[in-house]
Design a protein that fits this description.
The chain is of the alpha/beta class. The chain has 2 domains: about 220 residues, 3-Layer(aba) Sandwich (Rossmann fold); about 160 residues, Response regulator (Rossmann fold, 3-Layer(aba) Sandwich). Helices cover about 40% and strands about 20% of the residues. The chain has 14 helices and 15 strands. It has a 7-stranded mixed sheet, sandwiched between helices.
């Protein structure tokens, strides 16, 4: 497999890709004059964190910031880097590409951020990446995106801590499709994340010989799915792949249960979210199969998971952390490990340290692949438990299977290099 460096990143709403990147480019083009620039104080190691703290992904983003702060606190408690402490600077992107670009440039030019870690939206990532690439700042992405790995948008400053849709949907598809009948329908959030997840499922389904019987698209932040679900029922699928996220995932599952669809087909969600399952309750999710980067019960077999969980529980009334919280923790922890290894916040030195980093922050061994800086990591296939099977309020999922960290399940470096 070729390990050539490329120039990647794609991962935007089909309609908003050009708009989002243009917003980032326009913000960059205005340059430092846009802001009253203040130099960094030369002491604090500043990590800017642009995430959608409000809006439909607010719950997951607040959790990411909360867990990122734990990584900062641990780094500082251990003495920082030669006595130099870290500081986290969260900013609300409002789930808008233009807002994310503005906040990112502000973090760099006004607040003196040394690094950027954040985003929660495949589309918004491109706008952030456009700014960080232009400003030659490291961007540690903690949101699922395929485009971020592709040659058109990748740069040496881009690192991707989160899994990507190809990894996630691919792992779930390889588990689900051979075990079920082959008629498959898709409910797709009509932006980059949804389309990339559907593409990952279809690619995995080729080997299993699936038949796609319906593809129904819905807008982001849909509250009423009653016009979409009958179209799927009419196609009589054996499996329904819910290619959506956050409240869209919760609302579509609740309403499909009301339509009696769980009795008619297997429900599959490529990223089955801890936070939404916790707030949505057991009934809508019972029997749903999906993928995840993390479930807190990994603490039973992985020491770093136990340490992460214990640190989180101390300040959260005994509650364990979530999957997307794990991304926030690990993204910042990896940056700070690289800073410590480099003995500097110099961008080139930290990039070199990240490229050579083999780390175990919260879920077992990981590393960043050379050609696209994708974190190679385990993908877990989980099933949502019924209320009667839960040992406690947080015992939400059974881990059915683990796809071990393996470059072989990723798109090849050669394939990515051609996506320009």
């Amino acid at each position: 497999m070729s390990d050539k460096k490329q120039t990647t990143k794609k991962g935007v709403s089909r309609r908003n890709v050009i708009k989002g990147v243009a917003a980032g480019a326009a913000i960059v083009a205005t340059g430092p004059a846009l802001f009253n620039i203040a130099k960094a104080d030369g002491h604090a190691i500043k990590i800017g964190m642009p995430v959608p703290l409000t809006g439909p992904y607010g719950k997951e983003s607040q959790e990411q910031a909360r867990c990122a702060q734990i990584a900062v606190d641990q780094f500082n408690a251990a003495g920082g880097m030669g006595g130099r402490m870290a500081e986290l600077l969260p900013r609300d992107t409002k789930l808008k590409a233009g807002e994310a670009a503005t906040r990112t440039l502000e973090l760099i030019e006004k607040d003196g951020a040394d690094f950027i870690c954040g985003s929660l939206s495949a589309s918004v990532q491109l706008a952030i990446n456009a700014v960080t690439k232009e400003r030659k700042k490291i961007f540690m992405s903690i949101s699922q995106s395929d485009g971020i790995n592709e040659a058109k948008h990748f740069s040496r400053y881009t690192f991707h801590e989160a899994m990507n849709p190809h990894m996630t949907a691919g792992a779930v598809g390889r588990y689900v499709f051979p075990r079920n009948k082959k008629r498959v329908a898709f409910l797709i959030a009509d932006y980059a994340y949804g389309h990339e997840m559907a593409r990952g499922f279809k690619r995995a389904g080729e080997a299993a010989g699936i038949e796609v019987v319906a593809e129904v698209k819905h807008p982001l932040a849909t509250k009423d799915f009653s016009t979409f679900l009958p179209q799927i029922q009419a196609a009589r699928p054996d499996v329904l792949c819910l290619c959506n996220f956050g409240y869209d995932q919760l609302n579509s599952l609740k309403q499909s249960s009301n339509f009696g669809m769980k009795e008619q087909m297997l429900m599959v969600a490529p990223a089955l979210l801890y936070s939404q399952r916790l707030s949505g309750g057991a009934d809508p999710y019972e029997g749903v199969i999906g993928g995840t980067n993390y479930h807190w019960t990994l603490e039973n077999s992985i020491a770093s998971s136990k340490a992460f969980n214990d640190a989180y529980r101390k300040s959260n009334n005994g509650m364990p952390p979530s999957d997307y919280g794990g991304y926030g923790f690990s993204g910042v922890a990896s940056l700070l490990k690289a800073v410590k290894a480099a003995g500097s916040t110099d961008t080139d030195a930290v990039i070199t340290a990240l490229e050579g980093l083999k780390y175990d922050n919260y879920k077992g061994g990981q590393r960043y692949r050379g050609c696209d800086h994708q974190s190679v990591q385990d993908v877990h296939i989980i099933a949502s438990k019924s209320k009667k099977d839960m040992a406690n309020d947080y015992d939400l999922f059974d881990i059915l299977h683990t796809d071990s960290a393996n470059e072989g399940v990723l798109r090849t470096c050669d394939e990515l290099s051609k996506l320009t």
